[in-house]
Specification:
The complex is a heterodimer. By secondary structure, chain A is of the alpha/beta class. Chain A has nine helices and 16 strands. In chain A, the strands form three sheets. Chain A has a seven-stranded antiparallel β-sheet. The radius of gyration of chain B is 24 Å and the shape is globular. In chain B, helix 17 links the parallel strand 7 and strand 8. Chain B has three domains: 154 residues, Alpha-helical ferredoxin (Fumarate Reductase Iron-sulfur Protein, Chain B, domain 2, Orthogonal Bundle); 171 residues, 3-Layer(bba) Sandwich (FAD/NAD(P)-binding domain), CATH 3.50.50; 154 residues, FAD/NAD(P)-binding domain. Classes of the chains: A alpha/beta, B alpha/beta. Bound molecules: flavin-adenine dinucleotide and FE2/S2 (inorganic) cluster (FES). FE2/S2 (inorganic) cluster binds next to loops of chain A.
Chain lengths: 272, 504
């Protein structure tokens, strides 16, 4: 059981929760995730740790209500408890001084990007963050990202804030202007696919953090498998970050849709 | 007969045993037919998760126990990987002394209710039974009797609480709550240690919970054993991954003086053939976990699972049988085992193969998948199979399957479960670069003591053996526990000699 210490609504369907988990807070690094489960009959879902406080013994996750579990989680209030939290899982992001790092985050992908931006900043990199959202209301964590970024470029689909356009357009603005040594892209699979196509065009090494379906998160089931460079990898133990050029994003997209029908049905059930 | 067996069987000369042998003539005993385990009807049981074997009645158990000749040379004991005093417990059943039967079983077997259900007795104790080897008659139903005694204890509530030694000021950590970890925990707590079991998942029991289905091993039985350990004082911590949530060094700092690693062989293998990542092709571990651990077969649980109508399970082991029988229970009209050798080579237990057949499972032996084909949404809909024939025996002694040229054909399916084996869970070795491992990625230990290349770390079960059995895992756990005790006694002595009273 892990108590919710604070809760903040970031946008219509997106909430940020600070959860008591001292051991995980102590061990987590940028790139790590946790698996959570709500209730005895709940499912296990992965969530990236976006922030942590060793002093407070807490970790922070950001969740978008898109399915049964994320909905239940978003409805929990301060003082209530998450039944199961386990982690930190996955391999941490490799943080080095590389020069100029472009961190591209789309939608709720901005939350897992935050610790990477922070760590890259402290490692002495120049950090350019490109944040994309459908509209101004849906853009999250801009202030937090700004604290650790030398520059923040914002793009929205509808042009309600920042530049109008797709994330790739924001990225290209920076890429055509100055030398970028590393790109890190986190967001929906389709966004990462296009982001890495762009950076490949400019020959910039690119990492993507994959958000596959998971069950255990410890390498035991293979639900999270994805093809990377023609080989099957388990996102939970081999990733979640991979060289984006090698990732078969189409397969990832396909596999993410595995249980769409089943999920839509149970989501409908809890909403009614 | 070896000296060990002689010692285990010394109870044979006790007066009650001598008298008991005289109550029936050998002839009278050998004419009794072997008891058949009462079972739920196949067509009923595939509609539910009810346990298939329903257990012997007292009367049936006593009659079966009468068959046992209480041999001078009980070869069955040698057939048992943990050398249970088999005649000792069976003769106790014959005299109605069920409490003594369970006491004898628990001398060497920490989980008799589990082993009585899932051990491959037909190739162990029962294969070495005098009836089978010399009389050419069906062996004593040792497994059924073991289960009977264990169930009697549980149901009667007369639980045999083992004596524990005085508390010692030493903490021992157990990594993983599968049979090896539970057995080690039980042994160490009896020796007076402060034992904590750390488990990565949100439930305890390892494969007993997430792998083996409830129709073969109800969760209630595993929970009962875990509760007994809790009563003895074992601490259980779930959602705790050693190497992630805390490292061995953290635990050493927190005062743990020794470790037992029973982290299992969790990583599922795939064949690396085209189309294996299509939707609807999953590992047996994923399929079974979704159902057994996550409750996906029940409507009020959140986890989804594919309910295939035409399900192909690739493989011939227990895991494959458990998967295919689960598929039947989830409504598959056609549930098939696809195995590249013949039925004789199948590693699954005979009982499981039999039960699967009764439940309408089809066996496509000498067939091997070479490719999966999917619809436009990426959902698997066909398998390309290749026919095989048996060639020369390979290193495992089984005849090697050889592909028959141009024999490929397509089979319609809507769900494929890959069950071709597992490799050891890499989390622990990954977190301990200095730990010696084999080329199969198992942890290397001294087979006598189960000690690894790191002196305070012992290991056993599937992480040491690769995929093995519950009884071997349990035996390892107990052996390791005894050696952890020896190791700590030496540590205490050397600390005392150097003037420190306690290991911190
Ligand atoms: C479907 C199936 C059916 C089977 N049927 C039979 C049968 O009929 N008869 C038989 O004898 N055998 C059977 N087996 C094999 C048997 O279950 C195993 O040999 C046995 O469970 C191994 O026990 P173990 O203690 O080594 O590990 P496991 O039972 O695998 O348990 C290991 C536990 O450790 C946990 N863990 C792993 N890493 C960590 C970590 N770093 N920190 C904390 N916890 C960790 C895991 O989550 C798991 O719970 C079957 C196996 C399967 C999968
Ligand atoms: S989530 Fe099960 S193996 Fe990765």
């Amino acid at each position: 059981m892990a108590k919710i210490i604070s809760k903040q609504i970031l946008s219509e369907k997106v909430v940020q929760l600070e959860i008591e988990a001292p051991r995980i807070a102590n061990k987590r690094k940028a790139g790590h995730f946790v698996i959570i489960k709500i209730g005895d009959k709940g499912e296990r879902i992965p969530l990236t740790i976006s922030q942590a406080s060793i002093d407070m013994g807490t970790i922070t996750v950001v969740v978008q209500a898109v399915g049964v579990t994320s909905y239940k989680l978003s409805k929990l209030e301060i003082g209530e408890e998450v039944t199961d939290v386990v982690g930190p899982l996955g391999n941490p992001t490799v943080i080095e001084r590389m020069g100029t790092v472009l961190c591209a985050g789309g939608g709720v992908g901005i939350a897992p990007l935050l610790p990477v931006v922070e760590a890259m900043h402290y490692a002495g990199n120049r950090v350019i963050s490109v944040l994309a959202a459908r509209s101004k209301e849906l853009l999250i964590l801009e202030n937090e990202i700004s604290v650790f970024s030398d520059e923040v470029i914002i793009v929205t689909d509808d042009g309600s804030y920042g530049h109008k356009g797709l994330i790739t357009e924001g990225m290209e603005m920076a890429i055509t202007r100055e030398k970028i040594d590393q790109v890190i892209a986190i967001g929906p699979a389709i966004m990462m696919k296009y982001a890495s196509m762009l950076s490949r065009k400019y020959n910039i090494p690119t990492l993507a953090s994959l958000n596959s379906i998971m069950v255990d998160g410890t390498g035991m089931c293979g639900a999270c498998r994805v093809s990377v460079g023609g080989q099957t990898k388990f996102v939970c133990v081999d990733g979640p970050e991979f060289n984006a050029y090698d990732v078969d994003f189409d397969e990832l997209l396909m596999r993410l849709g595995s249980y769409t029908d089943e999920e839509a049905e149970s989501y409908k059930r809890i909403l009614t | 007969m070896n000296a060990n067996t002689l010692e285990i069987n010394s109870g044979r000369n006790e007066e009650w045993r001598i008298n008991l042998r005289k109550t029936l003539k050998t002839k009278e005993r050998t004419v009794i037919p072997r008891i058949k385990m009462p079972e739920t009807e196949p067509l009923d049981r595939i509609k539910s998760y009810v346990e298939v074997n329903s257990g012997l009645t007292e009367e049936q158990a006593i009659t079966e126990a009468q068959r046992c000749l209480d041999c001078v040379n009980p070869t069955c004991i040698e057939g048992c990987p943990v050398n249970i005093n088999i005649p000792g417990f069976i003769k106790s059943i014959e005299t109605h002394n069920f409490n003594n039967a369970i006491r004898v079983l628990k001398e060497t077997n920490a989980l008799p209710a589990v082993c009585g259900r899932v051990c491959p007795q037909e190739i162990q104790c029962e294969a070495s039974c005098f009836y089978q080897t010399k009389l050419k008659k069906p062996a004593i139903a040792i497994g059924h009797l073991e289960r009977f005694a264990a169930d009697y204890e549980r149901i009667s509530g007369k639980v045999h609480i083992p004596e524990t030694e005085a508390k010692r000021d030493y903490k021992v950590a157990i990594v993983g709550s599968g049979p090896s970890g539970l057995a080690a925990a039980g042994e160490l707590v009896k020796l007076g240690y402060q034992v904590t079991v750390f488990e990565a998942l949100h439930e305890f029991g390892g494969v007993l919970k997430y792998g083996i289905p409830e129709f073969r091993l109800p969760n209630e039985i595993v929970n009962f054993e875990i509760n007994n350990l809790k009563k003895l004082g074992v601490n259980f911590k779930k959602n705790f991954i050693i190497g992630k949530t805390a490292d061995f060094d953290d635990l050493r700092e927190e005062g743990f003086s020794a470790f037992f690693v029973g982290s299992g062989a969790g990583l599922p293998l795939f064949m690396n053939i085209p189309g294996e990542n299509f939707i609807g092709v999953l590992s047996a571990n994923e399929y079974l976990t979704r159902v057994n651990l996550m409750g996906a077969n029940k409507d009020d649980y959140d986890t989804p699972v594919f309910k295939g109508k035409k399900v192909a399970v690739i493989g011939g082991g227990n895991t494959a049988m458990d998967s295919v029988r689960t598929a039947r229970r989830l409504g598959a009209g056609k549930a098939m085992i696809i195995y590249r050798r013949s039925e004789d080579e199948m590693p699954a237990r005979d009982e499981e193969i039999q039960h699967a057949k009764e439940e309408g499972v089809e066996f496509l032996t000498l067939n091997n998948p070479v490719e999966y084909i999917a619809d436009k949404n990426g959902r698997v809909n066909k398998i390309m199979l290749q026919k095989m024939k048996l060639g020369e025996p390979d290193t495992s002694g089984r005849r090697r399957p050889v592909p028959i040229k141009d024999s490929e054909y397509l089979l319609k399916v809507d769900l494929v479960i890959v069950s071709i084996g597992v490799s050891p869970n890499p989390l622990i070795p990954m977190s301990l670069p200095k730990l010696e491992t084999s080329k199969w990625k198992t942890i290397t230990v001294d087979p006598e003591t189960m000690q690894s290349s790191i002196p305070d770390l012992f290991a056993g079960g599937d992480i040491v053996r690769g995929g093995a059995t519950v009884i071997l895992a349990m035996g390892d756990g107990r052996r390791a526990a005894k050696n952890i005790h020896n190791y700590l006694l030496k540590e205490m002595q050397s600390k005392q000699a150097s003037g420190i009273n306690k290991i911190d």
